[in-house]
Amino acid sequence: MAPNYSLHAIPVYWILALLPHAYAVSYMKKANNGKWNNANPRGTGETNKRAVPAAVQAKFERMEASHANSMENAPFFIGAILAGNQAGLSSDTMNTAAGLFLALRVLYLFAYANIARTRYSYVRSLLWALSMAVLIRLYWAAGDKLIA
């Protein structure tokens, strides 16, 4: 039986979820001559908005939104991993689901940060939907195993 690494995916996801915020702050700081008010980071937005070009502000907002989305999706991901393990799904199933979800989230975060045109933004939405489908499938498989 292969080792089950799926629980390791939880801290990996957490780090992945924090990266867009770290990059957003660094990106804004660089665009704003090194200025960033770490004592009031959420209140810094209006000041920065006036100090940087609109495209920089828009990318900053997209990166912050991708960070928020990752935090919002964390409970669903963690629950799916715990449900699958509790139900006794195979290591292969758990590792594949965790790995596929993380890979889709990497693509999603990259797309969120870099796609500025509405016409291409549907790629990001598709990646999000696919990542959620992986988790829904994992919940479904766990449920099937528990009622069998």
Short characterization:
The chain is mainly α. It is built from 5 helices and no strands. The chain has helices spanning 9-31, 44-51, 54-87, 91-114, 118-147.
Protein model, in words:
The chain is an all-alpha fold and 148 residues long. The chain has one domain (6-147): Four Helix Bundle (Hemerythrin (Met), subunit A) (Up-down Bundle), CATH 1.20.120. It is 80% helix and 0% strand. It has 5 helices and no strands. The longest helix is centred in the middle third of the chain and has 34 residues, at 54-87. The two termini are 22 Å apart.
Spans where pLDDT lies below 50 across 5 or more residues: none
Tell me the overall shape. elongated
CATH fold annotation: Four Helix Bundle (Hemerythrin (Met), subunit A)
Number of helices: 5
Q: How many domains in all?
A: 1
Q: Percent of residues in beta strands?
A: under 5%
Full CATH superfamily name: Membrane associated eicosanoid/glutathione metabolism-like domain
Helix content: over 70%
Mean pLDDT: 93
Distance between the termini: 22 Å
**For this structure, what is the CATH class?**
Mainly Alpha
Q: What about the largest sheet?
A: none
Beta strand count? 0
Structural classification: mainly alpha
> Radius of gyration over alpha carbons?
18 Å
- Listing every helix as H and every strand as E from the N terminus to the C terminus, the arrangement reads HHHHH
